[in-house]
Amino acid sequence: MLGRLASLDLAGFLIRLLVNAVGLAVAAWVLPGITVANGTALLVAALIFGVVNALAKPVLVELTCPLILLTLGLFLLIVHALLLGLTSWIAGRLEIGFHVDGFGAAVLGSIVISIVSWLLNRFTD
Q1: Is residue 47 a contact partner of residue 24, using CB atoms and an 8 Å limit?
Q2: What is the pLDDT of residues 75-84, one digit of tens each?
Q3: How far apart are CA 106 and CA 27, in angstroms?
Q4: Residue 122 and residue 114: Cα distance in Å, rounded?
């Protein structure tokens, strides 16, 4: 039973990693402000993005909850842009080959990634 649960967790992790990678790839393809060097950089950036979302997003959402409520959720775009910028910063420090040029590109990238992730999650659930 435990082995089956571990395989489900691994499968879920791999699906989330691929969904993040596709979202980042589409954002890099559509937006000139987001660049990815190669496929390996894309997968590592997707992994970093997943870790950043798992660790930093709950803290940021908790800290900005009044702003999120006041703007009826639109402030989540800013939170997602900050997470994408943090991913770019970490990737730059590790010399991965993933870069986001500025806050505007991060906001647009977070919108593209959210739409792609939503579409893919509808098919993978």
Answers
A1: no
A2: 999 999 999 9
A3: 10
A4: 12
pTM score of the predicted model: 0.87
Q: What is the 3-state secondary structure (H, E, C) of the chain?
A: CHHHHHHHHHHHHHHHHHHHHHHHHHHHHHCCCEEECCHHHHHHHHHHHHHHHHHHHHHHHHHCHHHHHHCCCCHHHHHHHHHHHHHHHHHHHCCCCEEECHHHHHHHHHHHHHHHHHHHHHHHC
Residue range 42-72, pLDDT digits in tens: 999 999 999 999 999 999 999 999 999 999 9
Phi, psi of 69 (to 5 degrees): -65, -40
Residue 48's CB: how many other CB atoms inside 10 A?
21
